[in-house]
Amino acid sequence: MSDAFLKHGPMNVVLTGWKNGAKAPYYPKAVANTRLVGRQIGLLVNLMVNVMGTKYDQVHLAGHSLGAHISGYAGAYLDGKIARITGLDPAGPFYEKYPTIVRLDKSDAKFVDAIHTNGAPLTHEGAGLQKISGHVDFYPNGGAFQPGCGDPVKGSLGQLFQGHLTGAEGVIACSHRRSYYFFTESINSVCPFTSYQCTDWDTFRRGECMDCSRGQCSQLGYHADQFNGTGKMYLQTLGASPYCGYQYRVTLTVADDSQGLVKIRVVGENGVSDVLELSEKPDKLHIQQPLQKIFITKKDLGDIKDVQVFYDRQERLLWGFVAGGDASLKLDTVTISTGEKKNAWTFSADQVEVTDDAWVSLVTKTTIKGADADLGPQFIG
């Protein structure tokens, strides 16, 4: 991370080494030491201000796991005068049920942002904190587990049964560490980690929050303080580095009720998306109830040229009879849209029928392109 900071621009980076106070497996002792380490960092910042001429509004603390709470203690010792604290998956055990006075919170700096990547219960191998910890809290991929990390319980148990203790630790820590990698990548990334204000992950996945028109969006990572979006923010990422991708919303409407599995593939001027399962089970498809979902691509697809739709009626034998959805799916429209830009491509199917177990391409479209949505001025106070 320090290399990424120095690549970004001229700045001084100070690293805190406290491994002797945080040795495994004595986690309770490490928790107890966080207050002392935080106070020492606070004393160092005061020294830099009083002797070296540093200003409080030039100081940005970033800490992972227990380091997030250490940063909070340092900020509290400095009466919240420093510019910013970034909490990278703040530690959950011993903090989840306690008030803000003993953990990172928005009073510890003028701007506090937190990235939650492993906020599952400890009984499910969660090491992070799900609670609101700052002015803006990011929950990539829902904030509990991260894509590409595998099943934390099955994976760690499998490694242990094979005698691979280090491998088990890696599986468990994968989601917890991902916050660090997200933030590091964001410092110099051309791809924006665009994040959307929403109440919860399921609502976001359904595409109900993908709107930046009122300045309620932000960007996960280093550039979060340049936006005025606050509260809980959600986004999708890719499962391997580089993690940042481009998020789209697909909305599909049908011309007649049906039932089955629907998949789509989007073709743009810059590439083709992976196949997206728009319905994860044989859903009932109603005229008045569109299918809608968020999907992510490795590159900006650019102008959308074509949408390909696949239908599977999920035919099966039941008591000697063939059961399943209709033999074909009658499409109405498919719309692909972006959130941070007011761009939308609506493909009119004109009641095109997609037969069972077949792909159909839609090329007749209406395009709405707008200027970038106003994400708001820099956050102040």
Description of the structure:
Pfam families: Lipase (PF00151). Belongs to the AB hydrolase superfamily. Lipase family. By secondary structure, this protein is α+β, with helices and mostly antiparallel strands. It folds into two domains: 1-244, 3-Layer(aba) Sandwich (Rossmann fold), CATH 3.40.50.1820; 247-361, Sandwich (Lipoxygenase-1), CATH 2.60.60.20. Helices cover 22% and strands 28% of the residues. It contains six helices and 21 strands. The protein has a seven-stranded mixed β-sheet. Strands 8, 13, 17, 18, 19 and 21 form a six-stranded antiparallel β-sheet that branches. Strands 9, 10, 11, 12, 14 and 20 form a six-stranded antiparallel β-sheet that branches. Strand 1, helix 3 (66-77) and strand 2 (84-88) form a beta-alpha-beta unit. Helix 4 packs across helix 5 (165-188). The longest helix is centred in the first third of the chain and has 26 residues, at 27-52. The two termini are 26 Å apart. The model is unreliable at 155-168, 317-322 and 371-381 (pLDDT under 50).
- Find the structural class using helix and strand composition: alpha+beta
The CATH homologous superfamily name of the largest domain equals: Alpha/Beta hydrolase fold, catalytic domain
Question: Uncertain regions: pLDDT < 50 for 5+ in a row?
Answer: 155-168, 317-322, 371-381
Name the overall outline. Answer: elongated
CATH class of the largest domain: Alpha Beta
